[in-house]
Specification:
The protein has about 240 residues and is mostly helical. It has five helices and three strands, in the order ααααββαβ. It starts with a helix and ends with a strand. The chain binds zinc ion. The site of zinc ion has 9 residues, from loops.
């Protein structure tokens, strides 16, 4: 193969090395770790918020139940009192029984109202816990958004570079025979993306092996369309 072709192939190899470095920078940008930490913190705060919301709903439900109970006791007491004073009952014993019932209903109502007060205090506590976690979550979300924006900006620059280098690579690759390019691409992974070696002083500078006299002779007489490669390691040789 003509020397010019190898020059182009070397350029492709250089550009491929650049592309790998850029992709690595893109994938391992330091802000990605920050973003991941914030995502984890966000999930943790959301779980806490859900747990608090659960307790909050429980307290609300219980308060509603107690309010209903108070209403029903009040209604019962109103009926008892009406009976007591509407003149429909005249027997002393019955009147005393009604008085007793009214009093015990009032006692019951007060006990329930005490429970309500206690629950209202708990409702307030759970409410402030909810407000606290909401503020924390808002702060984390704000930081996550800032990191996300910074990461997008930083990686957009890398993406633009990747685009540029890819275009150059395509241009250079277009001037290389498809057969040589295919061979280069096929063996590149084996050599960590650097499958080209120079042939200097009878040695391959990829594997540093001295090539046999026969191999050297063959390389010295290689035709313009043949692909030169190291008989020891298989790298493509730049003559
Ligand atoms: Zn070699």
């Amino acid at each position: 193969m003509a020397v010019g072709g190898y020059d182009q192939l070397l350029k492709v190899q250089d550009l491929d090395v650049q592309l790998r470095q850029l992709r690595h920078r893109f994938d391992h940008h330091p802000l990605r770790a920050d973003a991941a930490t914030l995502t984890a913190e966000q999930a943790e705060a959301e779980a806490r918020r859900d747990e608090i919301d659960g307790r909050r709903h429980e307290v609300d439900r219980e308060l509603k139940r107690l309010a209903d109970e108070v209403a029903s006791v009040e209604e019962k007491r109103a009926k008892t009192e009406a009976k007591l004073y509407d003149g429909s009952v005249t027997a002393t014993k019955e009147l005393l029984a009604l008085q007793d019932e009214s009093r015990s209903l009032l006692d019951r109502q007060r006990r329930i109202e005490d429970d309500e007060l206690e629950l209202m205090e708990r409702q307030e506590e759970v409410g402030s816990e909810a407000a606290e976690v909401a503020a924390e979550l808002a702060a984390i979300t704000g930081r996550a958004e800032a990191v996300g924006a910074a990461l997008a900006e930083a990686t957009a620059g890398i993406e633009a570079e990747i685009g540029e280098v890819s275009r150059s690579r395509a241009e250079v690759a277009a001037s290389i025979s498809p057969e040589v390019l295919a061979r280069y691409e096929a063996i590149a992974p084996e050599f960590d993306g650097v499958p080209l070696a120079r042939f200097v002083g009878g040695r391959c500078d990829g594997c540093h092996m001295q090539l046999s006299a026969m191999a050297v002779d063959r390389l010295n007489h290689i035709g313009p369309d043949e692909i030169a490669s190291c008989e020891e390691c298989g790298r493509l040789l730049i003559l």
